[in-house]
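Notes, p. 3: input format for complexes.
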Amino acid sequence: MKKPDNLKLCLKSPRNQKTIITIGKVKVGSGFTMIAGPCSVESEEQTYKTALPLKEAGIDILRGGVFKARTSPYDFQGLGFEGLKILKKVGSELELPVITEVLDTRDVEITASYVDILQVGSRNMQNFSLLKEVGLSDKPVLLKRGMSSTIEEWLNCAEYILEKGNPNVILCERGIRTFETFTRNTLDMAAVPAIKLLTHLPIFVDPSHGTGDPELIEPMSLSAVGAGADGLMIEVHHNPEVAMSDKAQAIDPSRYSEIFNKVKKMSAFMEKSIK
Ligand code: PEP
Ligand code: MN
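Output follows (275 residues plus phosphoenolpyruvate):
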């Protein structure tokens, strides 16, 4: 495999090291990790109603967007700081670490004080000011692949975070734009083993944004485990029909549970421990 020559810190060293990120009881990069939760935090009730059955089914980390990067300015933009408080409260009640996306350099410090992992979304992958700022944070960063980015560009963005001194970067493949419009994005599953061969960083797959189709989430979740991913990020809403963002791709907690049971079997086959 061709090695990009401008990368340093994210490349595998000769001793083949693997980054393992400890977040409470969760060890990202060791075994298989499940992140799930709503696209957006809409209210305390909705977050709790979604998170409780997920906790019972088995998740490691609760997701929920509070600063939303929406295509239209007229769409729900997220609850902002109010949402951060809700996410932290529900996470503490259920003893689940939480992750949310941060959009603005000015919000990094305050957001980091509420959550366990900062997410940099697809639209901001090459926001270099934001990358430098999260690189100065003591919280791990989940860096989603830009929707029109090559693997090399994506790894250079991870390099920005590492270079600022934050060693805890998780990559997340969420699909790229191609000529195909049947699916919301084209989930580049080959990126998973490629990233594994090139870097020591954990790599997750987001089959929700990667396909945009609830019926494709299970097969792509199983493919991700088979491709060697370290975890999944799945959007779940207690009542997808009324979700305020990404309702077309949301699954309900019982569907999550069915998928998770199959993911467990596939993880056992891949000899990866899972809760
Ligand atoms: C998200 O995970 O909430 C999100 C907006 O995803 P992406 O950045 O991959 O579009
Ligand atoms: Mn979403």
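The mean pLDDT is 97.
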